[in-house]
Design brief:
The complex is a heterodimer of chains A (311) and B (294).
Chain A (H helix, E strand, L loop, with lengths): L1 H9 L4 H10 L6 H28 L16 H8 L1 H33 L5 H8 L7 H22 L16 H26 L3 H9 L4 H12 L1 H16 L3 H6 L11 H7 L6 H29 L4
Chain B lengths: L1 H21 L5 H25 L3 H4 L14 H9 L2 H32 L4 H11 L6 H14 L5 H25 L4 H8 L4 H12 L1 H17 L2 H6 L8 H7 L1 H4 L3 H21 L1 H13 L1
Helix pairs in contact in B: 2-15, 4-15, 5-6, 5-8, 5-11, 8-11, 9-10, 11-16
Classes of the chains: A mainly alpha (311), B mainly alpha (294).
Chain lengths: 311, 294
């Protein structure tokens, strides 16, 4: 208790002396501080900002990735809105991201509630649930690939479930569900951790009061727990959705974008510009993708500010 | 210092609360449910191990779920040779070690300079500028980036290190800045009285005090680099220098005819992070938790 209060008191103090220092002579900052920041800023500008600007520039040209090019204005952008393959990839990506976000959050909240309750062998069970977080998504997808295309059909045949007797990865309408499943497997632990942090922030007295009032556990969850951890839910939903929009590895490991182009995500489309000879076209696609994620980030900041949750 | 104790403390408070409420009664139904649910994680892992220990004949046309008898350990040796495991391992280790060290050094230095000069316009501007990376997804910059790194001769693991460090800097600096602010300036001032330079203050006083955040940033950087597929796949031109996840991809053609070899190779690619996690799980979980709450 004493340590926390001293830290809390010491918290604002860095600004005190610094402020007087600045007022006395605005330019007299130890040059060492510049040496700490400027090289990193320069590298950052060169490796992150410059490619972004170059990309926007080439999205206005007809550059194929090699050879000559000339300006063609916004034609790439106009063509993208008329391209059924691109539209299909956006529809797939959005449906996939929405579904996955919903399922991940339900699963993660359930696991967090379970881990937060009075269960035996809590540490051991927690260890197991967080394992997917440390594994390579691609390698995990290769393992699941075999399960979906070999193990599941054999099992289905044994139990007489003919619809599942062929690999669902080869089924145009079902393959995306396999991708959702593996993504949930991989992403649930990360969301669970945020929910656990949220559940631990709920003070015990709240539950004691509810116990006295005779509220059942389901009622407690709906009327107490859920509203109190709503901020964490907002963070999970938005971070998750933004991440799932960029999905790539798991699709590579499971379907490679197939069958046909049924499971090709926006990110995969963009990367195809590297070998497909439509470099500038895919750069325009990337700019549109960036604007969409930017819009989501703005919504995220708005919601978080309103909820008063720091991120 | 205090922040490092927080997760453990809140965890203790939590146990007290629940046990107080339920009167030390263990919920056995829920325990059983959680055990069954944990099979969703354990079964694919068991399956990977079982497959890695089979001969192609034992796999046959079965489900692959049966435990093999006799165990076939030769798969690991075969996969070790076929994928040139030591080379891929060294390449991955190179990328990971330097990404972790680079992330720790760059992010903490930048965060320290920014947090201590918050009132200065330049440093506040630098902070906002670095944060902008959080809004630029990698797919957006990747095509021009690859052309650029290839032009500079950085189409190798060293280039990947640069991008891992710079790509993570906004999130890491955010974590560090909050932590540096909780360190009282008085600690530095007495050292400065004794003639210490800003570098010395950082190295001798600030960096050691950042230990809990170093753990968090280090863990994120370790897992992110070791398991990364996108950047090595796109950036590293020479297949001989590829990292473990990409190697699994490159050998798919060969693996499709020999699944036991494939699973032995998968298991060897998964093992390092899994072992580190099991051995250091208390640090890993509290470290990740600290990152998640921020």
């Amino acid at each position: 208790m004493t340590t926390t209060s001293t830290v809390a008191k010491a918290g604002p103090s860095p600004e005190g002396p610094a402020e007087t220092n600045v007022r006395r002579s605005p330019r007299r900052i130890d040059p060492t501080y510049y040496w700490m920041v400027v090289p990193v800023l320069a590298l950052f500008a060169f490796f992150i900002t410059l490619p972004a600007l170059v990309g926007v520039f080439f999205s206005l040209t007809n550059y194929a990735g090699y050879g000559d090019w000339k300006f063609i204005g916004l034609s790439n952008y106009v063509n993208i809105f008329r391209d059924p393959a691109i539209l299909q990839s956006y529809i797939f990506t959005f449906v996939f991201a929405l579904t996955t976000t919903v399922v991940v959050n339900i699963v993660a909240l359930a696991i967090a509630l379970g881990l937060n309750a009075k269960i035996k062998w809590r540490t051991g069970i927690r260890t197991v649930f967080f394992i997917p977080m440390v594994l390579s998504a691609l390698v995990v997808s290769f393992v699941f690939n075999y399960l979906f295309s070999n193990t599941l059909p054999v099992l289905a045949e044994r139990f007489g479930l003919t619809p599942l007797a062929t690999s669902i990865l080869a089924n145009e309408n079902l393959a995306w569900l396999a991708i959702v499943l593996v993504t949930v497997w991989q992403a649930a632990p990360g969301a669970t951790i945020i929910y656990l942090a949220g559940l631990q922030s709920v003070p015990a007295e709240v539950y004691e009061a509810a116990d006295v009032d005779g509220a059942g556990s389901f009622r407690q969850f709906l009327s107490l727990t859920l509203p109190l951890i709503l901020g964490y839910l907002v963070i999970n939903v938005i971070l998750g959705f933004k991440g799932f929009l960029g999905t790539y590895e798991i699709i590579v490991g499971l379907t490679g974008g197939g069958p046909g182009m049924a499971t090709q995500s926006v990110a995969m489309r963009i990367f195809s510009g590297f070998t497909g000879g439509d470099y500038s076209y895919q750069m325009a696609n990337a700019v549109i993708y960036f604007l969409i994620t930017l819009l989501i980030s703005v919504i995220q900041l708005r919601l978080i500010q309103r909820r008063g949750v720091s991120l | 210092m205090t922040a490092s104790q927080l997760p453990q403390r809140s965890a203790r408070v939590l146990t007290k609360r629940v046990s107080g409420r339920e009167g030390f009664k263990i919920n056995w139904w829920l325990t059983a449910l959680m055990l069954v649910a944990s099979l969703t994680v354990l079964l694919p892992l068991y399956f990977t191990v079982a497959m890695a220990l089979k001969t192609p004949d034992q796999i046959g046309t079965g489900t692959g779920l049966a435990w093999p008898n006799p165990l076939n350990w030769e798969n690991f040796a075969a996969a070790y040779v076929a994928t040139n495991f030591p080379r891929a391992f060294m390449s991955t280790a190179f990328v990971t070690v330097f990404s972790v060290l680079g992330s720790l050094a760059c992010s903490s230095l930048v965060a320290y300079a920014i947090a201590r000069n918050w009132n200065h316009r330049f440093f506040r501007g630098a902070f906002v500028y670095l944060l902008s990376a959080m809004f630029i997804p990698f797919p957006v910059i990747i095509l021009p980036l690859i052309k650029q790194t290839a032009l500079l001769g950085l189409d190798n693991p060293a280039g990947v290190v640069f991008l891992h460090v710079l790509g993570g800097i906004s999130f890491n600096a955010l974590l560090y800045i909050a932590f540096v602010r909780s360190i009282p300036v008085e600690l530095e001032e007495s050292a400065r009285m004794d003639g210490a330079t800003t570098w010395q203050v950082f190295r001798k006083i600030i960096f050691p005090l950042l230990a809990p955040m170093n753990a968090t940033v280090g863990i994120f950087a370790f897992l992110g680099s070791w398991n990364d597929f996108l950047l090595p796949q796109m950036m590293i031109a020479d297949p001989a220098l590829q990292t473990l996840p990409v190697v699994q991809m490159l050998f798919q053609g060969e693996f499709n005819t020999n699944y036991s070899l494939a699973f032995a190779s998968y298991l060897m690619a998964m093992a390092p992070t899994l072992v580190v996690y099991i051995l250091a799980q208390r640090w890993v979980l509290s470290g990740v938790m600290r990152g998640a709450v921020k």
